[in-house]
Model the fold of this input.
Amino acid sequence: MQSSVSVPTTRRPPSAAVHPRTALGLVVVLIAAFLAVLAPSPAHAADQLLSQGRPATASSTENASFPASAAVDGNTGTRWSSAFSDPQWLLVAVGW
Done:
């Protein structure tokens, strides 16, 4: 008579396998990040810019038609334009 001994085998997942809880956690984090990106921002523009109407000084102007004050006058039809050379700057006193 031949006796056979049954040895239970334990299957182990490959070392690179991902735990189901870990995978679920990653999915939840990805969904939360996706929704955070799509959520509307509560920030909004001020009714009036802090610089609007404040004193402005520039390193130069292209000509009298484009003064430094035009950069902060609130009119989208006007602008400041500097001389065609580097470096140029615009300083606005916002009154902090």
In short: The first helix runs from residue 20 to 38. The chain has a mean pLDDT of 83. The longest strand covers residues 56-58. The beta strands are 56-58, 90-92.
